[in-house]
Amino acid sequence: MPDVKRKRSKGAEKPRKKARSESGSDVEDDAQAQILSLETGILESKKHYNNINKLMELARNKEDGESSLVATVALTRVFLRLLAQGAMTKKTDQSEKEATVIQWLKDRLVDFEVVLTDALAEETTASTGLTLAMRVLKAEGQYRDNKEEYSFPEPFLKDIVRAIIYDGSEDLRQEFCEKYLGEYADVRYFAFKALNEVFGADENEQAVRESLFDNAFEVLSFFEEVPDTMEDMGEFYIEKAPKKHPVSILSQQRRLGQVAWLAALRLGPNREQRKKVLQIMTRSIAPWFTQPEFLADFLTDSYNAGGSISILALSGVFYLIQHRNLDYPSFYTKLYSLLDKDILHSKHRSRFLRLLVTFLSSTHLPAVLVASFIKRLARLSLHAPPAAIVAVVPLFYNLFMLHPSTTFMMHRVKATIEDTGFEDPFDANESDPMATGAIDSCIWEMVQLQGHYHPNVSTIAKILSEQFTKQSYNHEDFLDHSYGSFLEAEFSKQVRKPPVVEFMIPKRIFLPQDPASGVEDNLLTKIWDFA
Amino acid sequence: MAGSQLKRLKASLHKEGLIGPQKSKKDKKRDSKSGVKRMDKRAALEGIREQFNPFDLKHNVRGPKFEVTSNRPTNKAIHGRPVEAKTASEERRRQTLMVDEQRKNKVGGIVDRRFGENDPTLAPEERMLERFARETQSRHKKSSMFDLEDDEPGASFDLTHGGQTLSLDGPALVDDFQEDMEGLSDEDEDSEGRRAYLKRKALTEGEDIDVDDAQPDRKKTKQEIYSEIMAKSKAHKAARQEAKEEDEDIREELNKQLHSIRDLLFKTKDPRNNEPLDKAAEDAERVRLEKEYDLRVRQMLQDRRAQPTERTKTDEEQAADASERLQKLEEKRQKRMRGEQESESESESEKEEKEPPADFMEEDEEDEFGLGSGVAKKSKLLPTATDLGFDDEDDFFIEDDLVASGSELSLEEQDEDDEDESDQGGEDDDEFTKGLLAENEIKDPAFSASSSMGSKDDPAGVPYSFASCPETHQQLLDATKNVPIEKLPVVVVRIRTLFHAQLDSRNKAKLGNFTLALIHHLPYLASRRKLAPFSVFEQLIRHIHSLAKTYPIEVADGFRSHLEDVAKKRPLDPNLGDLIIYTAIGTIFPPSDHFHQVVTPAQLEIARFLGQKMPKQLSDLAKGVYLSIMILQYQQVSKRYMPELINFNLHILLALAPQSLKNVPFPVHELPDGLRVNNAQAAEIRKLSCYDCMESERSAKDQNIFKIAIIDSTIKVLDAAATLWAGKSSFLETFEPFKQLLVHLTSRPCRSHFPDALKDRIRKTQTRIEQMLKLAQIQRKPLELHHHRPLAIKSNMPKFEDTFDPSKHYDPDRERAEAAKLRAEFKNERKGAMRELRKDANFMAREKLRIKKAKDEAYEKKYKRLVAEIQGEEGRESNAYAREKEARKKAAKRNK
């Protein structure tokens, strides 16, 4: 009987505590001795049940933290013992008097639970309070009422969850997640349920809701991976639920995860919070959803929000399209509109490009549309950092390989049009990728970038004007670069070969040239003043 | 054939003439004379034997095959000799297997492995001879390189003193000494060579002291032969040397007599002196001398060494050479710009890169020194820089300074001239050259003492000499702490001359470190509150440049470490020193290269600043403008495009414009609004300066002036960029935003805040840009990038085998072919081995049976013999008994 053991060990702890406090002050010692005697009294006979009230008062008394804590612990022990003894279980053959006692005890237990949830809000007692509360929860679930029926003390858990979400510290939430939520399937199930109810009843103003959302996000995002099998769900905290009960059904668990997330999202997260949600959307949130359609609203809203939120929402939308067959009207138009002047400078650039590669990899896309994307990206790369250009060029190459009719953008021999004065038919302001006229245009931009200052970039850009002999380039090799990585690559190389030194030593660097020499001043001295 | 076997044999023997009627003596004689008879007889017998025993040979069972293409052409009718083969194998088994079998289960025994012991064909004498030969051979072969005994073949006979008695006053000692002396002449020969030398010498002297001669003549080993050859060549060399020395002596003697010869030569011109001499004798003497002189002259003319290897070049030729060299360098630069050198093989490119400058320098030096040095010494002309060991590039350097340094340095130069009354006097008006002349002094041993006394300062406080070459930046600071900043280049010149690499072997490394210290000094100078004059920076950079030609790797490393420092410590916040470093890199290294170890990271860093810096203050903008100019200057030749530059400068205009502009096609940072120009109509336009790159508090008026200056410079920069990238294919798209901005700046709400001069510039630039855009539009053509030759479908010529043999395997896969071959071989071998084993087993069974039979037979025989013996004895006994009985009967009868 593990429970008995635990109780014993708890009992064994007590003298130690006592011993420690003995070395402290006599007053405390007295108080604790009194608590102890009260406790033993309760356990000895039913006559001393009124001691519970005294202990309760002590426990409520927050001024004396130490003895309050001791009293709480003592009460926990008392209730655990009582529950284990069955002193709080109704039996058929009980007298009315006994029934009143049991009812009275139950009321006291409810009172005590309030004390415990209050303790959760206190910084100092939170951790102990959580442990005690969960233990009481366990005992309550195990010994209450008739044993045939599976029951979980939901109201108490709801109180605990409410306390944790509303008032708990970050550490407390962390502890709750690590020790209980992540470990036990039933705790998780009912905690999700409780979350839903907590948020559902919520009528707070925006600021509170935002902080609430933060807390809820913290708890919910604890699950990086969604359980896939029953084994992943974890053990049961109280006892194994019957097979038929929703707790032990995976889909029900997930449904409640979905419910909890929906409830949280209903709180109305602000921009930053949305970003956080979107970042973990495909990996940690969407898998909970048995009906991901519920996410569609949130995602399409985010997708339409513009800026980096759109980019982040893109992967979620894609998830829905991919897994739920979501029909997103004018998806590519929207995608095209995401290609704004900041996209290649954004820190989500590689994330976006990865998705873009996926979206454009279909061979069934109309060439006109693909050409628009190519031309737009080419325009953007005229102002892009080298890392972006490096990522974009292989994409072009692969697109040209996939859609041969777009290759006219690189090579257009037209006898009808006069040799020079070719007007670019591309309309940069057109928002519909099917109507930009890019397919009749050329990618002069890339030719210019073949003369890029960075040797690697120019070399990569040159693949577009060489013969297309490779089947495709692997995008991953080109995506994650930056100024830093380029510089590091340069500095990591040792100088072995003596570098070339300019053979002419210039006569003047900063100062103007001697007028007699007939050499023109350099640009620096023309524009800058070195007096 | 008819008749019995015997008859046929007789007939054939008869036919061959082996039997038959006896030949006459005459015939016999003739036959024996011709000598063919006996051989013929044997061959004939052999033939007959073969013919009469058809089962000795194996034939095709069904006669010869028909000729078809695929069967192997075999023209031998006989496939084997089964009987012979069988007997041979039997015999072999008897010798090996049988012996083994007999030795089985028996322990011990001695195997005689002496040569020829088991060979009955060898006669005992032959055997002994061969054994001796083998022994000597094995002894002769150096079995081990550490075998000391073998080193001296006659070791046991070798006496240290040649068998002579040891006595101190004997002649042996003298010999020893002499020998030693002789030994000295060929010091580094090994003892072997020396011995060979001695031997050869002895031979020439007719003596016979050779140690090797004690042994019978034998063939010389290769080593000996070679050492002999070497010794011979050395002797020849020594002889030549001796002859040369003799010549030398004679020449010296002649030189000594030259005075008298000259006296004699000039004597005729001075009649007073030769009065006492006899007229006739004098004439004769003169004729003789003249003759001799002519002879000498002719000889000297014919001497190959008198011929110039290269003739003196005219000025035009030299100019042509120089231009050709420049052209070559330019070509090489072009190649680097296109990034072609990387495509070449590594070694080749390295060779190319390394060699030409070195070659060039050497050539120059050789040729200059070949004709210049002597002249300079004699004629006391001013030594040029080349004479002093500088290469051509530095030549430019000094000449330029001769031209250009007049303005600010003339004062102290005059001072120096007054002070320093050296043999150059006032001719030399440049301090660079002066420093180099100081080097000349040091080269001359006469001056070395004076230079070492050191610590003499010129009036400006610049010491003439330094105790040690400053090798770290700290040392440089210490060395120059009392020197006014303007004099720093003078110090550098002096240090460079004092520690010129040609003066001491260690100076090369020292100067290398000094160069590094100079590189460190650049940002240090720029970090001071009061900036040093830029002429100093310029001179320092040029010094580093000229040093970089000697120490390219060190200089490159110095700059790279600085760049790395910038990248690590202040990636988006370069200081003035860093700007100077970027400038220095742009001039010292060729920024047009496709890839350059120093320029590429520098450009990346600048681009990073331009691309990622969020300008907060005006000084950031000023720095950006400076760096933009830097990039434009970098790309002056190669005209490479940098997106960040356009972005940044457009961004500046956008940030400073009095009104904001929406919908610009380039990324825009969040801008502090305080940067905008406001009511700056009165501000005059000035150029930006380095002080603008420092953060400082400015008054509102200064702020406005500063802002206007930035706008002005930015427009200039973008204008220059437009000019630089005018030919780019996407010029339209690149500069369209600039035009937009210019239009925006000329719009009423913006224009009203600008001074007139700026308005003017904006308008001018706008028209220029519009023209350029129009031109670009006219010139635009559709792209035609892919005029490649179409790729051929890969085709394979069928491979024809000239001498195809169907029985051979022509597997193109080498490995598989080899494996198949191995497998076949294995199969063959296995078959053979199985057959052999089976035969062995048969043989053994047969032998065993034979032995058993023999044993049984012997037993039977013995048994029979014994039975017979017993029976005989029995018979005899029974006979005796019968006889006895008879006798007894007879006796009884008798007795009866």
Short description:
Chain A has 531 residues and is an all-alpha fold. Chain A contains 25 helices and one strand. The N terminus of chain A is likely disordered.
Question: Which properties best describe this structure?
Answer:
heterodimer, A: 531 residues, mainly alpha, 25 helices, elongated, B: 896 residues, two-stranded antiparallel ribbon, 31 helices, 1% strand, Nucleolar protein 14 (chain B), nucleus (chain B), ribosome biogenesis (chain B)
Characterization of the model:
The complex is a heterodimer of chains A (531) and B (896). The model of chain A is unreliable at 1-24 (pLDDT under 50). Chain A is elongated and about 115 Å long. Chain A has helices at residues 2-23, 26-44, 51-60, 65-85, 96-121, 126-143, 154-166, 170-181, 185-200, 206-220, 230-233, 250-265, 271-279, 281-285, 293-305, 308-324, 331-338, 349-360, 367-381, 386-402, 444-449, 455-461, 476-479, 483-492, 523-527, and one strand at residues 528-529. With 531 residues, chain A is an all-alpha fold. Chain A folds into 4 domains: 1-149, no CATH class; 154-269; 358-496, no CATH class; 500-531, no CATH class. In chain A, helix 13 (271-279) packs across helix 16 (308-324). Chain A has 25 helices and 1 strand. Chain B is an all-alpha fold. Among the domains of chain B are: 1-21 and 36-56, no CATH class; 384-550, no CATH class; 641-779, no CATH class. Chain B has 31 helices and 3 strands. In chain B, strands 1-2 form a two-stranded antiparallel ribbon. In chain B, helix 24 runs parallel beside helix 26 (643-656). The chains are: A mainly alpha (531), B mainly alpha (896). Chains A and B meet through helix 21, helix 22, helix 24, helix 25 and strand 1 of A and helix 12, helix 13, helix 14, helix 21 and helix 22 of B. Chain B: It is found in: Nucleus, Nucleolus. Chain B: Residues 1-42, 61-105, 133-392, 407-431, 870-896 are annotated as: Disordered.
